[in-house]
Every structure is written in structure tokens, then in C-alpha cells.
């Protein structure tokens, strides 16, 4: 009989769920990693069944059908809706959860795998601008939610960060795994024994113009990061190239000079919200808002003229953000 494998090596698994690639890295033994696989498979299946806009029986679809009515929701749905509302308010509506109507009108009404097969899509003339102040009415006593009448919910972005953070916390606290990373389509959460022990995780920062080549790395111990881009999920229409980051003020794909943004900080869902807000608002308005609303988040921003902007503490660039050819630095 073989001796049990108790060696805590770096082990990995991959999952395809939520229309994205998911990777989990853990420093643990083989038996525990089997349990990680089962836990991750079950977790992301539950998340997809509850939050997918492409599954007709999901809880999100039920909410969309009941827009204008008060609906009792599950605990996890209520938690995510609270987060989405908090970040809508923090970003002055640049991050907005009620953008499914304009997103579908521009052509993203099927999964992205099917969307890429289209050669051209005709955009209907009507625009679906959403008031940045239009929020979700939440009742914490009843655990109920009411969407504004005529709106539809899309939580795909923030759910990725939230789900990564939740699984990372479970693996760390319940399975007592000392170090690991959960990466859900670029929204990731990591943990280490402490800030002073062991090597950090080195996260590649993708070059937006050369997707298979990194432009430096982020050295991350216990924390999170998320990347939003206008170049990745894009498609051709009769009105030009569209992408999935919608400006709620216009109902159209965001047209700022920011083409990609990576945000790092304590929480993956917040990183996702701020990376998207920066792409929508652009450099001047977006960074000014981050200065007034955040204290623990930093960013690397790529602009359409191929400049790279760093935002945060100057000591982080060279200590935490490594080998990134920064053209300009903006202090927090």
C-alpha cells in the first residue's frame, strides 16, 4: 500500500463555469486538494444557477421578470445586491448593476462564445440610458428587493469577485489551507500565512495589445485584484465595435480613453467595481473619485494612446507592482 501524500506542494485545478475560466491554486496535500476540487465544483455550480442571466430558472432571471415588485430573495442574493448598491453609490453610478437592457440592445444577448460567431449585429436605434441614481430598493428586515420598473439586473462582473473572495475565505478558514489563490476570469483573491511569511503570489498584468504577453507583475500576499478591459469582450456591429462595459449615462459602450485597468486592494468585489468605474469614467474623473472614496486601493491603467498610468502609493511601484513601464504616476 502506498504511503499517504502529506506533502504540502503547490497544486492547481481548473473549472469552466459562469462563462469564464476559473483557476484555484493551493499549497496543500493531495487529499485536501481533492476536497478543494469538490468544494469548488459545487460552489461555482451554485453561483451560476443563482446569478446567471443565461439560465431561465436562475434567481436573477426571476428578479428581472418581477421588476417593479417587491421580491423575497435568498441570503446570498441579498448580500450581492447590497454590495452592488454600495459600489453604485461609491462610484456615482459608474459601476451600475441595472444595465442588462442596454447590454443586450448592443448585442450581448447570448453567451460570449456564441456572440463571437456573429459577423455583424444591427443595433436598434433606441438608447437605454440609466440614471446613475436609479438603485435597487432593499429591505433588510424582510430580505426583499425591488428593481425599478423597466430595468433588468446584470451581476456578472461583481459576482465573479464576490465568489472568488467567498471561496478563498472558506479554503483558508474552514479547510485551514495556509496559502492559495482563487482566480475567476481575472478577478482573484489570495491569502498567505501572514504578510511577513513566505513569498508573495506573482500575478501577471496582461498587455492589452498583446494578450499572451504580460506587462509586469503584481506581487500579492493576502489581498485581491481585478482587471476590466474594453478590448477583450468586444464584437462587431453596424455602429462599430462594441464592448461589454456600458456607460449608464449613455446606454452605450464606454468611450473613455481607458482601455484596461487592474485594481488591487483588500476585496475582490471592490476591485472589480473600481476597475470597471475607471474604464467608464476615464482618468481624470475616475482617479479623482478614487482619491475621495478609497484608501486601500491602487491601480495600473492602460490608455488608448498606449500609455501606462500608475495610481496609489509611490512606494508600491517597485515593491508591489513590479517591472511595469509606468509612463506617469498619480498619487493617491
Summarize the topology.
Layout (H helix, E strand, L loop, with lengths): L8 E9 L2 E9 L1 H22 L7 H7 L5 E2 L2 H16 L9 H6 L6 H4 L21 E3 L4 E3 L9 H18 L6 E5 L2 E5 L9 E7 L2 E11 L2 E7 L4 E4 L2 E4 L2 E2 L4 E2 L4 E8 L2 H14 L1 H11 L4 E6 L4 E5 L8 E2 L5 E4 L1
Parallel strand pairs: 17-19
Antiparallel strand pairs: 1-2, 2-6, 3-5, 4-5, 6-7, 7-10, 8-9, 9-18, 10-15, 11-12, 13-14, 15-16, 16-17
Helix pairs in contact: 1-6, 3-7, 6-7, 7-8
Structure report:
Its cofactor is Mg(2+). The chain has 8 helices and 19 strands. It has helices at about 30-50, 60-65, 75-90, 100-105, 110-115, 155-175, 270-280, 285-295; strands spanning about 10-15, 20-30, 70, 135-140, 145, 180-185, 185-190, 200-205, 210-220, 225-230, 235, 240-245, 245, 250-255, 260-265, 300-305, 310, 320, 330. The strands form 5 sheets. Strands 1-2-6-7-10-15-16-17-19 form a 9-stranded mixed sheet. It has a 3-stranded antiparallel sheet with strand order 3-5-4, covered by helices on one side. A hairpin with a 2-residue loop joins strand 8 (about 200-205) and strand 9 (about 210-220). Helix 6 runs antiparallel to helix 7. It is globular, with a radius of gyration of 20 Å. Residues about 1-5 have low confidence and may be disordered.
Descriptive keywords:
single chain; 332 residues; alpha+beta; nine-stranded mixed sheet; 8 helices; 19 strands; 30% strand; globular; disordered N terminus; transferase; flavoprotein; FAD; FAD:protein FMN transferase; magnesium
Summarize this structure briefly.
The protein is an alpha+beta fold. 30% of the residues lie in helices and 30% in strands.
Amino acid at each position: 500500500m502506498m504511503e499517504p501524500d502529506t506533502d504540502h506542494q503547490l497544486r492547481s485545478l481548473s473549472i469552466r463555469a459562469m462563462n469564464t475560466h476559473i483557476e484555484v491554486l493551493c499549497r496543500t496535500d493531495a487529499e485536501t486538494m481533492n476536497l478543494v476540487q469538490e468544494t469548488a465544483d459545487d460552489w461555482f455550480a451554485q453561483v451560476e444557477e443563482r446569478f446567471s442571466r443565461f439560465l431561465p430558472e436562475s434567481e436573477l432571471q426571476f428578479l428581472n421578470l418581477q421588476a417593479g415588485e417587491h421580491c423575497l430573495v435568498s441570503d446570498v442574493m441579498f448580500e450581492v445586491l447590497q454590495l452592488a448598491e454600495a459600489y453604485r453609490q461609491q462610484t456615482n453610478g459608474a459601476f451600475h448593476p441595472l444595465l442588462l437592457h442596454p447590454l443586450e440592445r448592443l448585442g450581448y444577448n447570448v453567451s460570449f462564445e456564441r456572440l463571437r460567431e456573429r459577423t455583424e449585429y444591427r443595433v436598434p436605434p433606441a438608447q437605454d440610458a440609466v440614471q446613475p441614481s436609479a438603485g435597487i430598493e432593499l429591505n433588510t428586515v424582510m430580505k426583499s428587493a425591488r428593481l425599478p420598473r423597466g430595468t433588468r439586473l446584470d451581476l456578472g462582473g461583481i459576482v465573479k469577485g464576490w465568489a472568488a473572495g467567498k471561496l478563498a475565505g472558506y479554503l483558508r478558514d474552514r479547510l485551514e489551507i495556509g496559502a492559495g489563490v482563487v482566480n475567476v476570469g481575472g478577478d482573484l483573491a489570495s491569502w498567505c500565512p501572514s504578510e511577513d511569511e513566505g513569498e508573495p503570489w506573482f500575478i501577471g498584468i496582461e498587455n492589452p495589445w498583446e494578450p499572451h504577453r504580460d506587462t509586469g507583475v503584481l506581487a500579492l500576499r493576502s489581498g485581491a485584484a481585478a482587471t476590466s478591459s474594453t478590448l477583450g469582450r468586444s464584437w462587431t456591429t453596424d455602429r462599430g465595435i462594441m464592448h461589454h462595459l456600458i456607460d449608464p449615462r449613455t446606454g452605450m459602450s464606454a468611450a473613455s480613453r481607458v482601455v484596461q485597468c487592474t485594481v488591487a486592494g483588500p476585496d475582490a468585489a471592490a476591485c472589480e467595481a473600481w476597475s470597471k468605474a475607471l474604464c467608464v469614467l476615464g482618468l481624470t474623473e475616475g482617479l479623482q473619485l478614487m482619491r475621495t472614496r478609497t484608501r486601500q486601493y491602487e491601480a495600473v491603467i492602460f490608455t488608448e494612446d498606449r500609455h501606462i498610468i500608475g495610481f496609489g502609493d509611490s512606494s508600491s511601484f517597485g515593491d508591489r507592482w513590479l517591472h511595469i513601464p509606468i509612463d506617469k504616476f498619480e498619487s493617491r
